[in-house]
Structure formats: structure tokens, C-alpha cells
Amino acid sequence: MASVAAWLPFARAAAIGWVPLAKHPLPPPPFRISRPGVSPSSPSTSTTSATTTSIGERRCDEKIIINVSGRRFECWRSTLEKYPESLLGSNEKEFFYDEDTREFFFDRDPDVFRVILNFYRTGKLHYPRHECIAAYDEELAFFGILPDIIGDCCYEDYRDRKRENTERLIDDRLHEDDDKIQPKPLSSRESMWRAFENPNTSTMASVFYYVTGFFIAVSVIANVLDTVACGPDPETGYSRSCGERFSRQFFCLDTACVMIFTVEYFLRLYAAPDRLKFVRSVMSVIDVVAIMPYYISLFMPHKGEVSGAFVTLRVFRVFRIFKFSRHSQGLRVLGYTLKSCASELGFLLFSLTMAIIIFATVMYYAEKTVVSTKFTSIPAAFWYTIVTMTTLGYGDMVPKTWAGKLVGGVCSLSGVLVIALPVPVIVSNFSRIYHQSQRADKMKAQRKARQTRIRLARNATSNAFVAAKRRHEQHFDDSNASGDKNIVNPFESQHHHLLRCLELTTDREFVEMGPDMLMNSGGGASLAAGNSAMAGFTNFGSRSGRFLLHPRAWWCCKSRRRRKNSCKFNIERKNTNNANVSGDEIDAEIGDFQLPLTINPYNSSTLSPNIIIPPQEMPYQGNSTSSLQYNVVLHSNANEPLLPATNRFDLNLPLGTVNRTQLNRKANSLMAVYEHSSVNDTGKGESASKSDTYRARSPSSVSDSTFRRTTHVQIIDKDTHEAV
Amino acid sequence: MGNNVALNTKYDGNSDYDDAAVTDNSRSYRPCSLDELVARTKFDKKEIQVIYQGFKQECPSENNLGIVNEQTFKNIFGQFFPFGDTSKYAHLIFSTFDLRSSGIVTFEDFLIGLSTLCRGTIEDRLKWVFKLYDTKKTGRLTKDDFHVIVCAVYSLLDNISNHYNDYITIQEHTATVFQKFDKLHQGYITIEDFIKICTQDPIIVQSIEALRGAI
User: Fold this and answer.
1) Hey, is the C-beta of A86 within 8 angstroms of any chain B C-beta?
2) Which of A17, A40, A524 sits opposite B83 (nearest CB)?
């Protein structure tokens, strides 16, 4: 967006290519050529007379001085006006204007302001790394710029720092308010689950945490001590393990531990929000494996304690130590690392295997000649190779021939290399994953949300642009003599004019989109097609010949159905009383609602009060002879939930400027506005006067513009559906 | 006009910039002097200055060669017509500005084109429009040429590839326009016919005036 204004003349000039194709004559340009004797619409063949006018207009773009805490910045006014929603681009900067020095003074940080001003110049917002993220955010907020538009070059950095900062703040806050937290009352199940997952949430939780930890440790130590030699067996004279000597005590201890583990497991199972997921998780599998041997051994007949299966089961008791991984983040990360470094580990294993086989083979054949050699077969040589490659060197198998010794030397040297290579990869993986484990999911969610927000904002901008364009057209159309052209940005008016030419060339109209298009499509305004497809259309008539309007349809969003010009407000999904208007079948199909609105003409002194949804409350001006009954058809988009801000809609009609802005604010880009008009039973034959009176209003909102257009609409009697 | 003379490029060789300009970053392109441009076009110094400032800023920054390519045009139009797909239209405009069919538009080309469009006579402008439509440079316009331009203009509005109905509209529009111009039903339109028909149509003349005069 750097120099869009500079290219606008080029775009307008290139638009001459549309002229032979245009279905309608193009409107005159929005600016006036001030030189006398040159009228805008005369097909003059001499061209030099118009030379200096537009340059003069461009040079009325003045230089603005901005003084930020003493440092002066200068730029063109048009540079700042590129972003009218920000402070510098809007009238808000007038609050900071210093009359004496004729400059804008801001008492803010000049370094950050430099970055912000560059954004206006180049269209890209950067984040300087040395700035504190909070200070930067503050400045952006002050100047009305959303951080979402930070350019891709700096966005990752910004996001990372912002997240670090927020996390740190949250941690600090958590530690402070640990005791003071009064969350909304959770069910016992939820609070239990929270206690299990987060031991620092309450004292009970941490008590539970430490108790289970203690018992895991006890159980593991008991398992270990079980096998220590404790003194000679009085009967047989052999030394016994402690487990045999104090078998009852160990049994009690084991029982206690297993009971606690069982209770804990079932409590977790009860508290888990998703039980199936919990049962499948690794930790629960470990829990089960840790306590199952005990139960199995209970049910097994007490035959020999040395039977193979029983011994195996005892081995599984050591899995209890893995329960510690609930207590240790590092253990979990280690496990995850190993899982994720599967490829490196696999490579390590594979290369080791290759080397082992090679060296074992060579070793075997080298030592084959030796009498009573330990290298009886190649698999026997495997053990030697492994011990040598890992530089253990037990010495139980040594080569005797010199060839074997040579091979052994090479084996140990290569072993060092082969093992050392994948290890750093695994180590760095571990470190990376440890840091990433905290960030990965958060970033993903944020990115998606950010994309949606950016898309929404972009569509909102484009819709607002379309609305502004229509406003300007009304303005231009209405009040030629009025002097408020000054407040209109010349660049914008030219841009509007250009788009208007495009519309007229192709006999289409730019319309705002409804929320479904906002969410789904990447952008773009939907179009109202020309008249050709429509049946039963109302005539707009010509507006003083300026814009030759053919009867047009106002399509709603993507639905390409034929209907009479119906107005739809995407407001509230409330089914109101309905449907005496044409298009009932359409309403039924897409769930449109209708809302009768009463509008009084401008010259009537009794203006209707606020028309508020739901219509049951609406005062019905039944006997007012000059009121128009507008049936507002609400189009509900069943797929997209409406924003809460648009749920209540107060229509103040007719609209003074205050109400107009209110309407504008509410009938924002998320709504597709259509109007269907019909007249109530008494309002007959007054269409002509109404059209004149409505014209006098200065439109400032989207609904106004549609409002205007419908004044030329043929008024259809509500009951009989015939034109009046 | 001697194009080779006027272009003081830093590197030797002919005016075939296609590969050189893109691949060699050290060769940056400088336009010829301001006075020469004033002499060759109908703008005065101040105007050329303003135009050049804008032009320079829009050049692709990685090369900063002082030229624009078709992609830049596409982006520029994309800023003005944010709703649609500007590539077709940009392509047409680009090839019309590209006087030497070199694939790039230098500042001179740009200025000359702009001078014709903003300050030229009606005849000049209509000739430019004819050149715009005549993509194959045959000197005659056929219905296909019109179809191309109509497609391009419609695609500025919205991405039409999804809308079958729009295709029919385009066909109709093309047929209407072609019929309007092809009064002799020859199946093609020459430049003289084109200019004659346009100048005789007051709506077109008025519309041309509506787009004039902006710098």
C-alpha cells in the first residue's frame, strides 16, 4: 500500500479501456477542474488546458509536522490518511494539534513512533527487537493500530515475546493468588480432576501428590530390599533374602501400597473428563501394569513362588517406578523425546547392527584357527563386538591371533565414532522438545485465530470501503453545491469514482457481504447482478439522469434467488410474525424472518419512535395515513452464529444524523442490508411525495443508501400485492 | 523516437532486458534525464517528479531496478480492486504499456503511456484503447479480442471462475458490444472503424472525458 495514491491516476487512465464496453455512460470525475473555460464534460480536443489542474489538486496535499517528545517527523498528509481507522489517519489527531507551533505534538516515545510512521509510509509494521513488548503494545494501542498487521518478517518474534511475557505474568499472578483464587464452583468431579492434574491448586491436591509419591518410593524400595540378603536361614543354613524372612511384613507393605495405588487409579478414572481417553493414556497403562501383578498373584494358587510366571509378574512390579513420571516433567519430556527421536534411535540401532555383524563375522573367521577359542560362532562373537564397540571391554573374550587383534582395534575405534554420531542429535532434540512442548499447541491455536481475525478485518475494511463509496456517491449526487467536499479525501473519492465506473461498465453493484461469505470466502464483495435475470422487479427510475439506473436486484449474499427487492437485516434469529410479503417461499426455505417496520416520511411531525425488535413490542402506526410499512426481512444465516453485538438492533427511523450513525455502527459490514417495502393499508398514493422528502436526508450509512433507493420503489400494497 | 538512444542504461547491449534485468542485480536501471522526458511527453517537470516518486516506490524491492513487471501491475490493480482477480486485466494493460514487448515496463514506457492517456487527444486515446484490445497485434479486432477484454473487466469485480451465470453474462455482453462496433458485419473491426464509431457516439466521448485529467 505504499504509494497507492500515486498509482491511482494510472489506474483511472487505464480504465479508458472499459469505455467502449460500458453499458452505461460513466459518471463525471469527482473533482472539479477549476480552470475557467474548461468544463468537465465537454469533449475537448485540446488537452493542454487541463494540465495544471490536477497537479494543483495533488499539491494541496500538505506536509504535516509531527513532534513526538521533541523529535520532529514530517510527512505528507496523504501518507497518514492511508489508514483512516488509526489515530493519525483520522480526525483524532486534531486533538493533538498545537496552534502556536502549527504541528501535532505527542508526548510519547519517539523511537517507537518512528516505527509506527514507517508503517504509514511503507505499509509494513515492524517490531524492533530491542523494544519492550509491553511498551510497544502500548504505543500501538495509543495510535490505534492493531498488532495483527505486523509484517511477517517480524511477526514470529513479536508473538514469541508476547507469549513469554504473558506466561511470565500469569505465573507470577498464579503464585500470588494461590490462596485467593475463588473460581466458579466446579463440580466435585471437575475439582478432583484439577487437583490431580495440578498439585499446586489446593492443599489437598499437593498432599495427595506427596502421599502418592511417598508410597511409590516406599513400594520401590520394598521391592529392592525384598531381595537383599538378610541373614542365614535357620533351617537350611543358606542365606535368605529379607523378603523371605519378613515375608508377612513385606506382604502387608505391598498390600498397603497396592491399595493406595488402586484407590488412586479409580479416583482418577472417575474424575477424568474423557474416560476412554484416560484409559488409553500411557500413564494409566503404567498404573495398571504396576498393580496387576499383585492381584494376579492373589488369585493364583500358592504353588511355588519360583514358578516362572510368578517371577515375571514380580518383575513387573518395578514398573511402579514409572509412576514417578507423573511427578516429574523432565521424565515425561524424556519419554516424549525418545518417542520423537525414533528415527535417530533407529538409525543408531541400524548402524550398530551393521557394524556388529561385520566385525563379528571378521572376528570369527580370524579366530577360527585358535584352539579352544571363545569365538565359537558368529553370534558368540556378537557379544565381543558389542562390548568392544561401546568401549566396555570386559575381557571375557579376547582375540589371540594378530589378525583378530587388528580387527579388534579397528572395531573399538569405529565403535566410538558410530555411537557418538547420533547422540548429539538426540540431545538437541531433547532440548528443543522440552522448550517446544510448552509452545506447540498454543501457537497453532493462535495462528488459526489470527488468520480468522485478519480475514475478518480485511473483509470489514473492504465492506466499509464499499459502504463509504456508496455514501460518497449519495453525497455527490445530492449536494453538489454543499461545501463538504472538503472533508472528503480526494484520493478516496477518485477511487470511488473508479469503482463506480467499473460498476457501470458491467452493470453490477458492489454489495456488502453477509457473515457466511466473510467466514468462508477469502474476501470480496458479492455482486448484485444486473436486471436481466430478475422478474417482478420494481423500477428504480432514473435519478436526474445522472446515474442511469436500470432496475436492479439486490441479491443477498450467495443465494441467487429471484426475489423482489427485499431488505434483509442480519440481526437476530428470532422468528417473528411473518410473511405477508412476496417471497414467502423463499423465507421458508432459508429461514428468513420478517419484521414489519414503520417509517414515517420526513415531513411528518410525528416521527415514529424507536422500532425495536421483537416486533410484538413495536408500536404499530396503523392509522397514520402517511406511514410506510416496511417489511424488513431478516435473513438468517443458519451456519454462522451472529455476533452478540448485533443481536439487539434499534432502528430509529426516520434517521437524524445521530441515529444514522447509530444505525451505521450497528448495520456494520457484517450485515447485508436489504429492504422490502410495502405500504400499509392506508398509505396510498403518497409515494411520489415520499421520494422527494426522503431525498433531502443526508445519508451516512449503508441502510440509508438502500433506504434511498427504495424510495423510488413501487409501493406495493401489502394486502393485495398490487402496486399503488 | 529512438528507443535505444533514449534509454541510458548502465549496461551495454540492446534493449532486450528480459534476462539481464532480472538476474543481474548490479545492473540497475536509471531513466533518462528529466528534460528529455519533459520533451517527449506532455507532462511538465513537477508532474514527472511526482509520478516518478510513486513509480520508484512500487518497483520490486529485491531488484530495485527501476522497472516494473507484470506482477507489480497485478499488485497495483489488486490494491484498487481488492475484490477480484486482477491478473487478466493487468496482463492486458501491461502489454499495452510495454512498447517494445520486452516483458518489462520502464519508466519511459510508463510515462509515455500515461501521457497518452491523460493528455492525449481523443484520437490518441482511442488508438491506445484499440491497442489494448488488439492483443495479437493484427490490426483488427475480432470477437475473441472483445471476449478477452470483457472477461478481464468482469474478473476485476469478482473471481468469476465459480460463477457459471457470469459466463453467460460475459458472452452476452461481448456479443452486444461487438455488434455495436461491427456495423458492416465483417467479423472484424479495423482501427479506423473503431475510432469513427467511438467518436460518433456521444456517450463514449463523454465517458472518456469522465476518466481524463487525473494525475
Assistant:
1) no
2) A524
Q: Does the reported pTM lie above 0.90? A: no
Minimal C-alpha gap between A7 and chain B (Å): 7
**A156 and A195 together in one domain:** no
Give the residue from A115, A145, A180 where a domain finishes.
A180
User: Within a domain: residue A569?
Assistant: no
| DSSP 8-state symbol, A532 | G
Instruction: For residue A141, give the CATH number of its domain.
Output: 3.30.710.10
Would you call A502 and B172 a contact, using CB atoms and an 8 Å cutoff? no
Nearest-CA distance A522 → chain B (Å): 9
Establish if B117 touches chain A: CB-CB under 8 angstroms: yes
Q: How far is B70 from chain A (nearest CA, A)?
A: 14
CA B169 – CA B90 distance, rounded (Å)? 21
**DSSP secondary structure letters along B123-173:** HHHHHHHHHHH-TT--SEE-HHHHHHHHHHHHHHHS-GGG-HHHHHHHHHH
Reported ipTM: the value is 0.76
Pick the CATH number of B36-119 from 3.40.50.1000, 2.60.40.1180, 1.10.10.10, 1.10.238.10: 1.10.238.10
What cell was used for B150?
A: 470483457
Contacting residues of B for A2, CB less than 8 Å apart? 57-58
Residue B201 has pLDDT above 80, yes or no: yes
Nearest to B129 among A2, A16, A560 (CB): A16
Give pLDDT tens digits for B72-119: 888 888 888 877 788 888 888 888 888 787 877 888 888 888 888 888
Same domain, A116 and A194: no
How many whole angstroms separate alpha carbon B214 and alpha carbon A50? Answer: 9
pLDDT along chain A (724 residues), means of 10: 64 80 76 44 38 44 88 89 84 79 88 92 89 88 85 87 81 53 69 80 85 90 84 75 80 90 91 88 87 82 62 78 80 80 83 91 91 89 93 92 93 88 81 70 64 83 79 70 54 78 76 49 38 34 36 38 38 37 38 38 39 39 37 37 38 42 44 37 39 38 37 44 50
Cα distances (Å, whole numbers) of residue A267 to A39, A193, B132: 88, 9, 78
Domain count for chain A, please give it.
Answer: 3
The domain B122-214: what is its CATH number? 1.10.238.10
Q: Are residues A227 and A292 in the same domain?
A: yes
Report yes or no: B173 at the A interface, CB cutoff 8 Å.
Answer: yes
Distances (CA, A) of A350 to A361, A408, A418, B40, B61: 17, 20, 10, 75, 49
Domain boundaries, chain B: 36-119, 122-214
Quote the cell numbers at residue A184.
466458579
Q: State whether residue A609 sits within 8 Å of chain B by CB.
A: no
State how far the Cα of A721 lies from the Cα of A676, in Å rounded to an integer: 13
* A200, A256: one domain: yes
CB contact under 8 A, A31 and B214: yes
Instruction: For residues A214 and A295, state if they share a domain.
Output: yes
Distance from CA of B46 to the nearest CA of A (A): 8
**A44 in B contact zone (CB under 8 Å):** yes
How long a stretch of residues is chain B?
Answer: 215
Both A383 and A282 in one domain: the answer is: no
Q: Which chain A residues have a beta carbon less than 8 Å from that of B41?
A: none
